[in-house]
Amino acid sequence: MYKFKEVKENTFVLSLDNHVEVAQALAAFCEEKGILAGVVSGLGAISEATFRFLDPATKQYVDKTFSEQMEVTNLTGNISQKDGKVYLHLHITASRRDYSCVGGHLLSARINGACELLVESFPNQYVGRVQDTETGLNLYQF
Ligand code: FE
Fold first, then answer.
1. 142 CA distance to ligand 1 centroid (A)?
2. 57 versus 120: which is more confidently predicted?
3. Considering its fold, how many domains does the chain have in total?
4. Which distant-in-sequence residues (6+ apart) come within 8 Å of 74 by Cβ?
5. Measured by CB atoms within 10 angstroms of the end CB, which terminus of the chain is less buried, N or C?
6. What is the mean pLDDT of residues 80-100?
7. How far is the CA of 55 from the centre of ligand 1 (A)?
């Protein structure tokens, strides 16, 4: 699903395998390394991505899938825990064939080409989340 190298203490360079789903592969890596808190950034090429938009007025999620080849111009996110599992909060910007960009809160992205990530873990730190009733968001709980 991925290859990785620890380039300095608690910092990893990852190369995800072609055709895997980014969030799934990253969560698997966090599970493997026992990462409870951290940050991630990356780039790559994808053929499909699903974004999520939360309408604050209705608290309803609106999901949209883009099924086309795109360059990941930026993937950024954080790693925390919710209900005893890895919780990834990922945002993405991706450029289309015509160089226009789409972006948002990322639910899933299918690699078609390559995906290179940098993961920094914060060892011995637990960062949890709980759902906030006012916003409907899963917010940090310190
Ligand atoms: Fe978000």
1. 19
2. 120
3. 1
4. 41, 43, 92, 93
5. C
6. 97
7. 12
Task: Quote the ligand 1 centre to 107 CA distance (angstroms).
Answer: 9
Q: Cα dist. 139→61, 104, 133, 134 in Å?
A: 16, 18, 10, 11
With respect to residue 91, please indicate whether it lies within any of the assigned structural domains: yes
Q: What is the C-alpha separation between 142 and 138, in angstroms, rounded?
A: 13
Q: What is the pLDDT of residues 1-15, one digit of tens each?
A: 999 999 999 999 999
User: Rounded to the nearest whole angstrom, what is the distance from the C-alpha of residue 105 to the centroid of ligand 1?
Assistant: 4
12 membership: H or E segment, kind and range: strand 11-16
DSSP, residue by residue, 77-122:
EEEEEETTEEEEEEEEEEE-TTS-EEEEEEEEEEEEEEEEEEEEE-
State the pLDDT at residue 59: 85
> Model's pTM, two decimal places?
0.95
CATH assignment of the domain containing 23: 3.30.1330.80
